[in-house]
Design goal:
Shape: elongated
Strand order of the largest sheet: 1-2-3
Bound molecules: glutamic acid
Distance between the termini: 86 Å
Oligomer: single chain
Structural class: mainly alpha
Number of helices: 19
Strand content: 5-15%
Number of strands: 12
Helix content: 40-55%
């Protein structure tokens, strides 16, 4: 699709924001890339008719890979980021209503624009072989020369002669003719006015490769112009390419977009975020049991701040940091970006995840945690006890109806304690299979001995049936408190051995809820089993 050359303005003459995320599919989507995508998405959404565009910059055919394209689609889908435009409605399962723009499908456009630069004398044919370029590099190394990059050997070839050689079939690339002795200036929204001496820019970079494919620089500038991109928000590592791009915009006679190079994302040690610090690819976070909302909410704060949530719709007034995507978009502004590098704090991200987990209903949480439970084999319990259900579970780790029900109700027991979805199966495994009877020490309350503990557990055995049938925690608690008082026993001393018998540990999700989920028969059986083991130990 072609666009008209003027910038788009709406009726009241304010610029309509058009921005883009333009990844090269040469790796998995990671925190830094998704932060760029998110800021562009939020910025476009922050204005009434703003448009967020997805463009695959796959001109490096050797490094681009279909699996990374799929990873991009999967990541966007999981995070709920949608783009607003594309050459056609999507046929593939890419999560959006449009296919993205794909540079490898637009080669003719770039060739045409390389020719425009050739015709205007802003670019030239270069016939240097890779071998010659390598020799120049070696000679410079030997001479300990500080010069780098192309030596502009073909810059002086007569234009007509060059055109003839190209037409005769000689292999060529097209290089940008950087005007020497000048300075290129542009404004970066965040970093202010930037100046670059043209002589210091990578000398005459290739725009069109010998195979007719464009390089990043040519395709990026042509597309940003044709797609009427008003703002380029991208990682700071591209800052050094921007003077070159500005030179190209001028050579074409086009107005450059506004640039905003985003602050780096660092680990706690001040070094660029990498695998050494922890997960970095979005896929890893998903597999660890993060919720997409939590990750997005946290990433949105990497280098940006937002107005405090004061409107009624704001999710949680107690936590002004918690925002939906829409709320973030309403508050996003380039003026609230920070210049300083952002520090990725895994602990803070965990906090976000916990908060979002607690906001889920039991049903929602159960369906989110279910894949983790199946993968962990929680329901794959052939031959083992299934609470209150004598028949074996289904094959393939699928839960039975009863297990699904228990799983959903168990979410209420662990919701307050979960940091990751992936922790759920382990925390509630005792509800799906009888835990090992733990060592005697696990049962024994402070200042007690084994004899006393057995005595308390016998009482626990009497109480377990009633407790398992109590309709709610409050009634169960009142009941056991009254029993403890009546018998002159501390509540904790009565509960600890019972907890160890039921859950297999002295630290566990809430006891009363566990008893209810197990039902009286299983509960009594577990206490009896523990009692038998402890009594045997005593003899
Ligand atoms: N294809 C470049 C990248 O991977 C895009 C840079 C830009 O946004 O201009 O990251």
């Amino acid at each position: 699709m072609q666009f008209c050359i003027n910038l788009v303005y709406d009726t009241i003459n304010t610029m309509i924001i058009r921005d883009r995320y333009a990844p090269s599919p040469t790796g998995l989507q990671h925190v830094g890339g998704i932060r760029t995508a998110l800021f562009n998405y939020l910025f476009a959404r922050s204005s009434a008719e703003g448009k967020f565009i997805l463009r695959l910059e796959d001109t490096d055919r050797t490094r681009s890979d279909e699996s990374y394209v799929q990873n991009l689609f999967d990541t966007f889908k999981w995070l709920g980021i949608k783009w607003d435009e594309g050459p056609q409605t999507a046929g593939s399962d890419n999560g959006g209503p449009f296919s993205p723009y794909i540079q490898s499908e637009r080669s003719a456009l770039y060739k045409k624009h390389a020719q425009i630069l050739l015709d205007s004398g802003n670019a030239y044919h270069c016939f240097c072989s890779a071998q010659r370029i390598d020799e120049v590099r070696k000679q410079r190394e030997e001479a300990r020369s500080s010069e780098t990059g192309y030596d502009r050997f073909c810059r002086s070839i007569d234009l007509q002669e060059a055109a003839k050689r190209a037409a005769a079939g000689e292999t060529f690339t097209v290089r940008l003719k950087i005007p020497l002795g000048e300075t290129t200036r542009f404004n970066d929204h965040l970093l202010g006015s930037i100046e670059w001496k043209n002589d210091d820019i990578n000398p005459d970079p290739v725009l069109l490769k010998s195979d007719g494919f464009p390089t990043y620089h040519l395709a990026n500038v042509v597309d940003d112009h044709l797609m009427e991109i008003t703002h380029v928000l991208r990682a700071q590592e591209w800052l050094a390419s921007t003077p070159l791009h500005v030179i190209m915009y001028r050579a074409f006679g086009w107005q450059p977009p506004e640039f905003c190079h985003l602050p780096m994302v660092m680990g706690q040690d001040g070094k660029k975020l990498s695998k050494r610090h922890g997960a970095t690819s979005i896929d890893e976070f998903r597999k660890q049991g993060y919720l997409p909302e939590a990750l997005l909410n946290y990433i949105a704060f990497l280098g940006a701040s937002y107005e405090e949530g004061t409107d009624e719709k704001h999710l949680d007034a107690k936590h002004p940091d918690i925002y939906t995507l829409d709320e973030l978009a309403q508050r996003f502004s380039l003026d609230k970006l920070n210049k300083a590098p952002a520090v990725f704090d895994y602990k803070k991200l965990e906090w976000y995840n916990g908060q979002y987990i607690r906001m889920k209903s039991d049903e929602e949480l159960a369906s989110l945690a279910m894949p983790f439970a199946k993968a962990a084999g929680l329901f794959d319990c052939s031959g083992e006890e299934i609470p209150a259900e004598p028949q074996r579970c289904k094959d393939g780790g699928e839960p039975t109806e009863r297990q699904r029900d228990i799983f959903t109700r168990a979410m209420a027991l662990v919701k307050e304690r979960l940091v990751f979805l992936s922790e759920a199966p382990e925390k509630i495994a005792y509800l799906f299979r009888e835990p090992e009877v733990p060592a005697a020490e696990e049962f024994i309350p402070k200042k007690c001995d084994l004899g006393k503990t057995i005595e308390y557990l016998r009482i626990g055995l009497e109480l377990a049936r009633v407790l398992a049938e109590m309709p709610d925690d409050e009634k169960a608690e009142n009941f056991i408190k009254a029993e403890a008082e009546k018998r002159g026993i501390k509540l904790g001393d009565l509960m600890m051995p019972l907890r160890a018998a039921i859950t297999g540990s002295r630290v566990s999700p809430p006891l009363f809820g566990s008893l209810r989920l197990l039902g009286s028969a299983s509960s009594v059986k577990r206490v009896q089993r523990a009692l038998d083991k402890l009594t045997a130990k005593q003899i």
